[in-house]
Amino acid sequence: MRIAVVGATGLVGTPTVSALQHGGHVVVPVTRSTGVDLSTGEGLDAALDGVDTVVDVTNTVAADPTEAESFFATATGNLLAAEERAGVRHHVVVSIVGLDRIRGNGHYHGKRRQEAMVERGPVPWTIQRATQFFELPAMVVGWTAAQGAAPIPPLLVQPVAVHDVAAVLAEVAAGPPQGRTRDLAGPEAHDFVDMARRILTARGDRTRLVPSWRDGPFGVEAAGEVLLPEPTARLGSTTFDSWLAGQ
Ligand SMILES: NC(=O)c1ccc[n+]([C@@H]2O[C@H](COP(=O)([O-])OP(=O)(O)OC[C@H]3O[C@@H](n4cnc5c(N)ncnc54)[C@H](OP(=O)(O)O)[C@@H]3O)[C@@H](O)[C@H]2O)c1
């Protein structure tokens, strides 16, 4: 099959391209670095010529709810319209477990808009939700750290390796549209602060972690089991320990 990966150079896009190529598919990488901008639609029609399936793994750095919603609404609108013109038969998008339960996070706000547009859109679709990636604790520290200390939310999570997410996206992309699939998670639950501490220790980073529901991407609404996957979730096999050992 000819499959376009939109966001091909990203954290989950890169292993998704590899997984699809390994499966014998022809992959069309789509990002601004390949001359396609979802925000304007520039280059999209040429990129999607002859494409059977699109996997959308794009992202924005916008943390403000209005900016995040604007990015995902414009990008998804341009992408779905171009897919319809090109006769694309399956639109696959990665989303986030627990999206509906978190109201105070701007990125989640944008992703809800993206999901709604895909559900109502003109192209048969699959929405694959995944839990937090193993890389997320270090990203949060990068966003919040100041003067040697970083506020970090004391979340309970069941994080997943991006390689496991990529393998599932490649499998889904090669099959028929499924609508909403089972949640995808990692094999074990973890304490988010503990994950961050272990990653920083492995990197020799002495930033002091301050458990806090303030000054970060998640407020106290994310406490308890809010971010955990549904009991029937599909589980990746990579453990946090083995991922960390490979860093
Ligand atoms: N992080 C998590 O824990 C987590 C968990 C579950 C789901 N997710 C979801 O996974 C998705 C991918 O996240 P990620 O961390 O892999 O993203 P990422 O590493 O930031 O990569 C984003 C990709 O999108 C491309 N892109 C950005 N703006 C674009 C534009 N205007 N036009 C075309 N391409 C554009 C980038 O390439 P260029 O810059 O070259 O354009 C890049 O290839 C996100 O939607 C996120 O919500 C994340």
From TrEMBL:
Statement: the UniProt record of this protein carries the keyword NAD: no
Alphabetized UniProt keyword annotations: NADP
Domain of life: Bacteria
InterPro entries registered for this protein in UniProt: NAD(P)-bd_dom, NAD(P)-bd_dom_sf, NmrA-like_oxidored
Residues covered by the NAD(P)-binding domain: 35-174
PANTHER family in alphabetical order: BLL4366 PROTEIN, NITROGEN METABOLITE REPRESSION PROTEIN NMRA FAMILY MEMBER
Protein name according to UniProt: SDR family oxidoreductase
Organism from which the protein derives: Geodermatophilus sabuli
